[in-house]
Amino acid sequence: MTSPNLVIRRLLVQGELGCDLTFNYGLNVVKSVADAADPKSTNKSGKTSLVELILHGFGRRQVSRAKWYFAPIATQLDTLWMEIEVNDRIITIQRSLRELSANLGVHEGPYAPGMDADLGETISVEGMSDFMLDILGIPKVSVKQSDGTAFALSFPTLMRSFVLHQEDSFGQILDKMIPEQRRSDVIGFLTRITPLERFTIEEQLGSLQREIVDLENRTKAVEAFLQDHGINSPTEIQKRFDEAGIALRQAEEARLALQDKIRQGAATQLAQGRLDELQHDLMRLKQEVGTLTQNLAGLREEENRLQDLLNSLRSDEARARRLQASHSVLSTIDFDICPRCTQDITEDMRGRERHGRCSLCNRMLIKTSDSLPKSSARAEDIREQVSETEAVLSDIRTEEEQAKIALAQLQQRHSAVSQQFDAESRSYVAPAVDSLMLKAKVVAELEAVRAALEPVLGQARSLQGMRERLILLRSNQARLQDELRAAAKPDRNRLNALGEIYKAILEKVRFPGVRDVEINSQSFMPLINGDLYIHVGTALKGLATVCYHLAILEFARKFDSFVPTFLVVDSPAVGDLNDENHDRLLEYLAELEDATPLELDWQVLLTTRRSNQQLDARVIETLSSPSRMLLRRQARTSSSGRDVR
Description:
- By secondary structure, the protein is of the alpha/beta class.
- Helix content is 52%, strand content 12%.
- The strands form four sheets. It has a six-stranded antiparallel β-sheet with strand order 2-1-4-5-6-7, with helices on one face. It has a five-stranded parallel β-sheet with strand order 10-14-15-3-16, sandwiched between helices.
- α13 links the parallel β14 and β15.
């Protein structure tokens, strides 16, 4: 395989403020020039904004909107489009500059106006890391942290080695990456100085370490549980459990023997006949009480029926008497005046009634209000029925009272016989029952003891299994640690090659007093003349750092690695870097293309406020503050751009 190829072809920002930059293979310079009135205005023109946009396009997660780099102008920004070429595949990444947590859109092919109408592939901010690693052909690996958890070498983490942001890149190599061991993890993985097998073993070790810690905690909890129950070893609790089981079986056998003895002796007792006789009397009395109770219920039902009948007859009698009275009263009245209209009743009207017609409406008289119903019973007849019903009801009530008295007497006899039966049966079975209950109590107590020991025994057995499992896991851990030590040994050829490339670059930028350069085999940090690079002085530490990243880029071009042949350098003039070394660094960058004999297969994006004649030839955008900021009001939001080789 070869090192991954990554090129940014175009970067477009849409919104009230925007920009549209096209990049080529090789060196691309974004230069900031000072305003005549303010020499420091080069610091505010937008060089670092370019790096922030690139990081945003590659899926870096923003901590918060308030801390976002573009927070002051966020309302004037809309969408970022970043067209990239990855291993001969052209992809356009779309990401919102308003909703920082919104999903990214990934479109095949170069950017074209109206592309936002095509949904493309939607990827979350977190998922963008895996996407970039996949298309670059970089394996997804993790390193083990001190607690055994895995720390993934995600694309944003690896990106720190080839996108150098001024704020956190030039203080030292992979500045602010914590812990320091993570720096050697990233460099060793990307350059493949560290064998890939090491990361596989580390993931296994981390998983094993977490399992061991979890098992150790569970073991301690079980040991504390057993100590609380006075158990010092699994053997001891097993012995106590077995003894409790034997005692329980013996108690159950004794109880069963006593039950058999009581059952066999019951048929020979002299009092058995007397008990049978009393039991027979109880059953007979109970049957008589039941029969009498049933008869009493029938009498009550008959009483209720007769009472309802009597009430009905009395109601009919009263209605018949009212009809007779109304007939007598109405038949004696002779109306001279109409009770309705108060007019005189004429002879003509009276004549009508004599001929069977109504004096008012002249209709045939079939029935009048003072006529008795033809089917109505006579009050005297109803009275006779009432008298008969009252006599029968009186007899029923008398019979009911007699039944109640008889029932009370039977219940008293039943209660007396029941008490006698209970007294004689207690005197007969009480001693045997007491003995049986005592045996049952012993059995119950022993069952409780055994039940209480059972979970303790289970914990003791699980403790033994956990201890055996711990021994096996620790053995595997020791084996993997031996394998890790062997696998973690750096590739000396690659390590020496990186050191030689680094030394050559330091010499080309005329790093003062370079005699000997070595890459530490543990930390992969460079030693210059026997001292760690950070001790060369504040004025040169930033230069040594930039050269180290340039050495990694050159290494990726010469050796198969996981480092993309791509580098972003954001204003490398940091600390007290003197003008001479700064100019020589810029000259070296400008000469990179001339030093490439074949077709360019790399890309370097440089932002700078210092330049030279060679560098000016590779400037793709000139910035100044405030007249020509990187993000400024655009006359149009798209351009054809330059061809990308």
